[in-house]
Design a protein that fits this description.
Shape: elongated
Structural class: alpha+beta
Radius of gyration: 17 Å
Low-confidence stretches: 101-105
Strand order of the largest sheet: 1-2-3
Distance between the termini: 21 Å
Number of strands: 3
Strand content: 15-25%
Largest sheet: 3 strands, antiparallel
Mean pLDDT: 85
Length: 105
């Protein structure tokens, strides 16, 4: 599962994964120096939570539930999985504040 973190030394958002013998990370985005630390920490926390929910949908698939009738465990799991089709478009089409440069993603 991907975890997200803020690297204050390089002012970047990182994605990191456990490899079993340590962690590995990549830079996801450069941050501006005027962004509030609490906002960037919240961004990292929210992305980590989203990653956890996405990962859980694969480790707990709807097909493994005993029941699939309306409002059952299987039904709820399928609803969660179906909602993923709206996540990426929502994340990528949300307008950014106009005071941020275009190269900050």
């Amino acid at each position: 599962m991907t975890r997200y973190a803020i690297d204050r030394a390089h002012n970047t958002l990182l994605a990191q994964w456990s490899t079993g013998i340590g962690d590995t990370a990549i830079v996801v985005a450069r941050l501006t120096h005027d962004q509030l630390h609490q906002n960037t920490r919240r961004l990292a926390a929210d992305l980590t939570r989203l990653s956890h929910l996405c990962w859980r949908s694969y480790t707990h698939p709807a097909s493994s539930a005993d029941r699939h009738s309306p409002h059952s465990l299987g039904w709820h799991r399928q609803q969660e999985r179906d909602a993923f089709t709206t996540i990426l478009p929502t994340l990528t089409t949300t307008p950014r504040p106009t005071d941020q440069p275009d190269d900050v993603r």
